[in-house]
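Dear H.,

Thanks for agreeing to be a second pair of eyes. The structure we're designing against is below in token form, covering all 250 positions.
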């Protein structure tokens, strides 16, 4: 299997290549390119399995390169030095990324995730959602959820609540569907910071737009728009009252 690194920093290319040779022996051939033209040529001619693409290239952006490609059947991993707001965009879009300077363990994990499923998994869809998010970092309206077999575009307003199950999270939607993803609930708690989401219990994250009432009996439960009952931990009760007071102001 081939890997192509597209980065205009020679030292960055050499570092990633060296780490791939040590930690990812399943990638038997590692190529590199330093600008958009060479990157396009490398992808079209070599048909790599995995492409590591720097966002900022001297000859343009990584997105400029992607828009010119006719061949997109590869796993894409962005390399970025972006701030946390842009990182949230990658997470909303279910697109993998590596922060500079690249950490060997994070590199290994990203490659393993990429190689777990080599079929075409609708890269176009994820890139479109990434671009949509980047147009307004403060107004995220949808998220791409990646399961073993599918990618789903989900409107945030359609999410009633999320439930943790170990290292997995289940999304409960207002159309009755459930989507199970292999991501910790804490990641979504962090990702949805500043939006209409609240964590009343370590195993649950709710969309307050679907919150109907707080039943104070038997320790306390939240009732959601689909009649689901969500437990409230004792240490979150004061925050629940504050939440209802805040909602009452609107």
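And this is the sequence the design step returned. I haven't edited it by hand at all.
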């Amino acid at each position: 299997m081939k890997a192509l690194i597209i980065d205009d920093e020679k030292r960055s290319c050499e570092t990633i290549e060296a780490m791939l040779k040590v930690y990812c022996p399943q990638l038997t051939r590692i190529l590199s390119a330093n600008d958009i033209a060479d990157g396009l040529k490398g992808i079209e001619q070599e048909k790599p399995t995995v492409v590591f693409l720097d966002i900022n290239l001297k000859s343009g952006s990584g997105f400029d390169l992607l828009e010119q490609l006719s061949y997109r059947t590869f796993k894409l991993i962005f390399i970025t030095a972006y701030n946390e707001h842009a990182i949230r965009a990658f997470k909303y879009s279910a697109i993998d990324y590596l922060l500079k300077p690249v950490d060997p363990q994070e590199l290994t994990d990203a490659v393993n995730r990429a190689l777990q499923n080599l079929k075409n998994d609708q890269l176009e869809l994820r890139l479109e959602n990434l671009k949509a998010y980047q147009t307004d970092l403060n107004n995220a309206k949808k998220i791409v959820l990646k399961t073993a077999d599918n990618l789903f575009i989900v409107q945030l307003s359609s999410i009633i609540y999320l439930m943790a199950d170990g290292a997995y999270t289940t999304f409960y939607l207002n159309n009755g569907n459930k989507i199970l993803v292999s991501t910790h609930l804490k990641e979504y708690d962090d990702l949805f910071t500043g939006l209409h989401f609240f964590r009343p219990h370590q195993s649950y994250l709710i969309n307050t737009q679907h919150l109907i009432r707080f039943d104070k009996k038997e320790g306390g439960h939240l009732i959601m728009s689909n009649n689901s009952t969500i437990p409230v931990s004792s240490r979150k009760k004061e925050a629940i009252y504050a939440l209802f007071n805040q909602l009452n102001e609107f």
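Two observations from my side: The chain has a mean pLDDT of 86. The CA atoms of residues 24 and 111 lie 7 Å apart.

Warmly,
E.
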